[in-house]
Amino acid sequence: MTEAMQAQVVLLHSNDIHSRLENAARIAAIIADERRVMGADRVLAVDIGDHMDRMRMETEGSGGRVNLALLQEAGYEAITLGNNEGLTYTSAALHELYSSPSRFAVVCANMMLEDTGERPEWMQPGIILEKNGLSIGLVGATANFYPFYKLLGWTTTAPLEAIREQVSLLRSRCDVMVVMSHLGLPLDRQMAEEVPGIDLILGAHTHHLLEEPIVMGETTICAAGKFGDYVGRVEIRIDSATGKPVFSACCLPTGAYAERPEAEAIIRAYGEEAKLRLGKVLATLHHPLPARVDRESALPNLLAAGLRRLAKAEIGIVNAGQLLGGLAIGDVSAGELHALCPSPINPCRMMIAGMHLREALEQSLLDEFVFKPIRGFGFRGEVLGMLAIDGLSVTYDSNLPPMHRILHMEVGGEPFQDERVYSVGSIDMFSFRAGYESLANGESYSFFLPEFIRDVIAGELLSESALACCNQLRWRSIG
Description:
With 479 residues, the chain is α/β, with parallel strands linked by helices. 31% of the residues lie in helices and 27% in strands.
């Protein structure tokens, strides 16, 4: 008998696919092949969150239903929610999505509805599944972005405590205790050290690829990277001498596999639907709105002004790299705006001292910041880009030394003051100390959810006064 056939159960796990739907279709083929070879009762497939990403047209245009259909067709039996599911859709939208008939369980121990303090009926903190005579306990948890979840109708709690509680409830009733962790590798390591009774942690969120599992005490940690480039495969056996589970784990590259035809058909059908839904015309332009990352331009200015108005702030600030292109004369569709601004980034209102704004504005005059690649934090662009501003005028001399090029600034016609605290309409990404890091030094932040920055642009495109003002220069060079 081969080693593969000795496995009592094969557990396949995916994470952070981020709507790379073709890879999801390849993983579906791998799951189907495992079931054909091993038998359906010996294969368990789970997803550890961030399967969805609204940067993908099919996901945006279907409200996530394409991802749901792919999970169902592949025969996943349990999933947990990542921040891309939980923070880019309202609780009502998730209820509509997951309360429909489904063949998989949604497992998350540290999320509850804020108004009731209870989980929705479609969510469980933990479950036990039977596979080939093995009782496998599954507990899920997601990253605790409490201030953001609160704005969408959720309460999230400290994940390790929620996991500890569920493990204590399930451990005595299962042969194998598994945590589906959308928490990131640092917390996975901490969990392995601090929470007893866990046999296997399947990780996500920080996009870590563990081609060899990490073993800490009696806990094994696995993770399969990002974008569905790999799928994790864990063979589970029970040691006849100790009665404890033994794992043999690896990550399979998915690129060599063909897409499952049934999954291909799902992607194609939802693609056609998305084209129709995103073809809606939002506005008609009589003048072009160019966008540049390296110099002041109209569309980033329009976004900065929209953020300032939404936040009822004195200043608007956003990095031009949020926009992947400009808008031409003519009709602007929802799909075009989505393509130009795919990031699931939310507006915010920050209260911040002038000195921190000045530091970021000085950095915005340096190529090392303008062309700095950014990854994560919801950003779906390529480079950071210079800062587009509104409500603020800046005079500078590019011949002066770096970080000393700004000569004069005014806010609302008054001289800029480094010591004064200003209200600024901006984006949540900066509060995570990403890109222009001094903008994370604000005294307070208020976030606007579920609005995305592309929603702000859509509103500004309907304002004749906003369109007339966005070509006015805020940055003035004298050197």
